[in-house]
Amino acid sequence: MSSTHPVRKGQRYKRLLLGLVAFGVVALFVGIGIVQNFAGLVVYAAALGATGLTLYGQFSESITFSDERERRLNERASNAVVSLFSYVGLPTVVVLYLLDATGRYVVGPTVWGAIYAFSAFYLLWNAVYVAFRVRS
Predict the structure, then answer these.
(1) What is the rounded CA–CA span in Å between residue 117 and residue 124?
(2) Cα–Cα distance between 85 and 88 in angstroms, integer?
(3) What's the predicted TM-score (pTM) here?
(4) pLDDT tens-digit series, residues 118-132
(5) Contacts of 21 (CB under 8 A, 6+ apart)
(6) Of 93, 98, 95, 96, nearest to 122 (Cα)?
């Protein structure tokens, strides 16, 4: 009897985790859309709980989640997303600051929240980068 290759088994777990999280997020948005926020939140929390149990099951076994090729692909995709986010987001923030300073556009609280989230993302990314750089 042949057993499943460890990388394939890890990929199956990864798909299960992503499916659970996606189901929870969709349930949350559907709940908000039909004005049943609490029901959507309960389903979301249950999906995240199931994700946590699945993660516990993963880490309690010795499973290889991905191979080197998939790891490089993940790194390239992450780099592309962060780069795109910075190439579009940073000039947008600068233009918004300039428009607000000249009085041509009033930046509302939602936009300020997005700017703060953008700044927090890059501060966190740089902190993690420095931590990894120091450790290596």
Answers:
(1) 10
(2) 5
(3) 0.48
(4) 888 888 888 888 888
(5) 47, 48, 51
(6) 93
